[in-house]
Specification:
Blueprint: H1 2-26, H2 50-68, H3 78-108, H4 113-132, H5 136-142, H6 145-154, H7 162-170, H8 178-186, H9 188-205, E1 210-212, E2 218-220, H10 223-229, H11 235-245
Antiparallel strand pairs: 1-2
Length: 246
């Protein structure tokens, strides 16, 4: 009796899921602006407005030369080395926050020019920041290993970077020069432009037609619906979705 009851409950649940899926598929694909806010990520938790993002961007841009000013000075003292590494961490963290905000904003709708502009700007600034700090690893590797370990022993703050420094020393024989590292960092915008262009076209410009669901209703095919439909037991529906999508 219990098994029959459980089977009935499972069957009812499956029917409810299929009915819900059918009602969702029957709807035309909606614009993001038409979807309730509770179903969308809230970028205001990162930056309340684009203006506040711009202010943080300006602050980071102005701070990049401060990092470059440590070039040639890492062997001065433990305090200088710690100050450089801490600044690099701080700027990298700010850069990451700016980058994530801009790219999540772009991912919501790649057709919006302002969002693309933010993503392009932080991509370029990320490259400048990477180039400004490209000297750190190569310069550390030019220092005597014993001196670096003396710095770590003398400065409690450098203990936070012990794993990074020890791992860097371990790979010493396989590292590039500071000039070569800088060239690689500056190449980021160029090498990343192709995938950015593809994503704009693929996610923003390409649309798909409609297909018939199991009941004969028209459903507009989207990338999100495609993955769900391809798991549907109806072979004809999967076939139609496949050929429409591809």
């Amino acid at each position: 009796m219990t098994q029959k009851l459980n089977a009935r409950i499972i069957l009812i649940g499956l029917v409810a899921i299929l009915l819900l899926a059918g009602s969702l598929w029957a709807q035309a694909a909606r614009e993001r602006s038409e979807i309730d806010a509770k179903y969308k990520w809230n970028l205001e938790d990162m930056y309340p407005t684009v203006d506040s993002w711009n202010a943080a961007y300006t602050a980071l841009d102005a701070a990049v030369p401060r990092l470059a000013a440590y070039k040639g000075r890492l062997g001065e003292s433990a305090a200088t080395l710690l100050a450089c590494l801490a600044l690099n961490d701080s700027l990298s963290s700010l850069n990451g926050r700016l980058y994530v905000y801009a790219n999540l904003k772009l991912d919501t709708d790649k057709r919006i020019g302002e969002s693309q502009e933010l993503a392009d700007r932080i991509q370029a600034l990320s490259s400048r920041l990477g180039a400004a700090g490209a000297f750190i690893d190569p310069e550390l590797l030019t220092l005597d290993t014993a001196r670096i370990r003396e710095f770590m022993a003398a400065s409690p703050g450098l203990q936070e970077y012990r794993f990074y420094i020890e791992n860097l020393l371990r790979t010493k024989a396989h590292r590039l020069s500071d000039k070569e590292e800088e060239i690689l960092a500056q190449a980021t915008p160029v090498t990343g432009s192709f995938i950015n262009t593809f994503q704009i076209i693929d996610n923003g410009d390409i649309t798909f037609g409609s297909i018939k669901d199991e009941t004969g209703k028209d459903i507009q095919l989207t990338k999100g619906r495609y993955s769900t439909i391809m798991q549907n037991p109806d072979r004809r529906l999967r076939r139609d979705a496949f050929y429409e999508f591809n």
